[in-house]
Amino acid sequence: MDLQLFLNQLLNGIQLGVLLFLVSAGLTLLLGLMNFVNLSHGTMYMFAAYVAAQTHIYTGSFIIAVVVAVVITFVAGLIIDVLCLHTMYDRGHLDQVLVTFGLTLFFNEGVRIVWGPGALQLPAPQPLSGAVDLGFGLVYPAYRLFIIVVGVLVAIALFLIITRTRAGMIIRAAASNRTMTSAMGTNVPLLSTLVFAAGSALAGFSGVIAAPLLSVQSGMGDTVLILALVVIVIGGIGSIRGALLASMLVGLFDTLGRAYFPDVFGLFFGPTVANAAGPALASMLIYIFMAAILVVRPQGLLPVRERKA
Amino acid sequence: MTAPVAATSAEAPVPVRRAWFASASVWPIALTLLVFAGAALYCQLAGKTYLLAPLARIMIFAIGAVALNLILGYGGLVSFGHALYVGIGVYSVGILDHYGVVNGWLHVGAAIGVSAVIGLLVGMLSLRLSGVYFIMITLAFAQMAFYLFTGLTVYGGDDGMPLSVRSHFLDAIPLKNPYVFHFVCLSVLGITLILMQRIVNSRFGMVIQGARINERRMHALGYPVFQYRLVAYVISGVVCAIAGVLMVNLNQFASSQYLHWVISGDLTVMIIMGGLNSVVGPVLGATAFIVLQEVLSAYTDRWQVVLGPLLVLLVIFAREGLVGLFVKLGALFGRRRGA
């Protein structure tokens, strides 16, 4: 097996995993904290990419684009939560699904109205546009490496905030017993609004840094949303450690599966069948993986230890 | 034979059961079917044949929504992946047609068989979980099929593939004729509605509803809730697949768009628009949804930008749907039911 290709794919997998973690972190926290299903989470990822691409057109600066997009998605998260979602926390899951589905339709169509049906491009910043030699003859795009580094830093920061600070302690407390946390004097509705906005900003951040690798277009958030849902199911709802582990697994499984599965498949069924069905089946791998996890551990790999009153 | 005898205990008063076709609840169904039959007559008399296509779409979506409502409304299980079954119906016809099989009975047989097997597998995995997990896993399975068929270039992949010819059932019922197609859809809708009415009022349906209201109690009473739910899930999937067969015959085009999660969402929206707690509610919802879509798209291509916020408002303020509205109006005019 070609070692360089393998290492390359390994890094790609880690990079996808890092992005997935950033998206699913906000989603899983909100699920754990408020038992709230947010199907519009992916739209923040998309919306931020659009905002960043537009800002980049005006200013030409990648850093300003990132900052503007993150701030705007944070504010958008606040507005959406206060306007539409706040009355939804006490409703059933069906209502939550429908409201956030409505928001997704609105945003997917809204960006097409504002920015047109064509895809936008957000170029990677100039110093990162080249490739880096990592030794072993492995040459890797600098920007993808940048995503891994930044993603890991953000993940560590998030992890420290959740596990080591007072704010994180309150979030974890509210996730494990909301009523008691509220009785101890924490404003849980306000907390959930802030977590929602922070989660939106995090999804927005990952949308922006992923944008140079993709084309910015309507519906780009749906793909990542589904992957984030898979991550959450595998990791265990509300569990940030579970999300981290599961997003890495999903990222690696998906990337390596797409790279090698068609070849392996071809060994058994011959090249013609493998060429026709291999790539399609490879994209199913993570779902099969998820199903397998669910059979063995329905509560997810690293579930939250829950204490009920 | 006469009406089934309800299971009654010695102490409880024996409820008066009429034959299903004589019970009051059958009138909404009869009225619904009459309206759609009358609509076809109107199209013929007024020469507006072009209205038959949207009418057929309403009926097909209504079939899917009524089927989904069995587990969503009555069972309380929010499946957000029923596009999977619509898609199975669509591709049962599409793939067989691709290999030159145009026999409609085979198409329907394949759709029923495949959707039942897939429904059993997906149901067995998904129903192990509840609440949020159930929503997410059903959605994920539907997306899996979406990506599978988007990637399968043999069957058109992303672009989809046209049907060479519509499903062939009998020479006497050419689906090419829009009026024939209309009445085929109408018959399937009628059968579906009567079937659902019978199911939800049967002992089986009562167990499903009981499990929604108090699952623990149903367990305590000794009902194997999982098996009941699984059967309901499979039934609802199979009927959705039949809707898919009609759908692909209407458009003469099979594409992975029918597997997209927006279809699952649309079906759910129709149920909510119509009202969760009745068998015909989803038909009203499907009608309202498609009419709204047709009217809005006459003004703008971007009708979803209106639909989205409308949906948000609907869920926040009008939880009872159109059926709830009718019931309220009925109460306003002093009409009491029962008594």
What does this structure look like?
The complex is a heterodimer of chains A (309) and B (339). Chain A has twelve helices and two strands; from the N terminus they run ααααββαααααααα. Chain A has 309 residues and is mainly α. In chain A, strands 1-2 form a two-stranded antiparallel ribbon. In chain A, a hairpin with a 5-residue loop joins β1 and β2 (139-141). The model of chain A has no long low-confidence stretch (mean pLDDT 85). Chain B has a two-stranded antiparallel ribbon. Chain B has helices at 26-46, 52-74, 83-98, 104-126, 131-151, 178-201, 203-213, 215-220, 225-251, 261-274, 281-299, 304-317, 321-332, and strands at 161-162, 253-254. The two termini of chain B are 29 Å apart. The model of chain B is unreliable at 1-10 (pLDDT under 50). The chains are: A mainly alpha (309), B mainly alpha (339). The A-B interface holds A 31, 35, 37, 84, 87-88, 91, 93-95, 97-99, 101-110, 112-113, 222, 226, 229-230, 232-233, 237, 276-277, 279-281, 283-284, 287, 290-291, 294-295, 298 and B 72, 78, 80, 125, 128-129, 131-133, 135-137, 139-141, 143-144, 147-154, 261-262, 265, 268-269, 272, 302, 304-305, 307-312, 314-316, 319.
Outline of this structure?
The complex is a heterodimer of chains A (309) and B (339). Chain A has twelve helices and two strands.
Which percent bin holds the helix content of chain A?
Answer: over 70%
How do the helices and strands follow one another from N- to C-terminus of chain A?
Answer: HHHHEEHHHHHHHH
Largest sheet of chain A: 2 strands, antiparallel
Q: Widest sheet of chain B: strand order?
A: 1-2
Number of DSSP E strands of chain A = 2
Oligomer class: heterodimer
Structural class of chain B: mainly alpha
Shape of chain B: globular
* Overall shape of chain A: globular
Strand portion of chain B, in percent?
under 5%
- The overall pLDDT average of chain B reads 83
Distance between the termini of chain A: 55 Å
Strand content of chain A: under 5%
Major β-sheet annotation of chain B? 2 strands, antiparallel
How many extended strands of chain B?
Answer: 2
Average residue-wise pLDDT of chain A:
85
Q: What is the share of helical residues of chain B?
A: 55-70%
Taking pLDDT < 50 over at least 5 consecutive residues as the criterion, the unreliable ranges of chain A are none
Biggest interface, residues from each chain: A-B, 45 and 44 residues
Backbone structural class of chain A? mainly alpha
> Termini distance of chain B?
29 Å
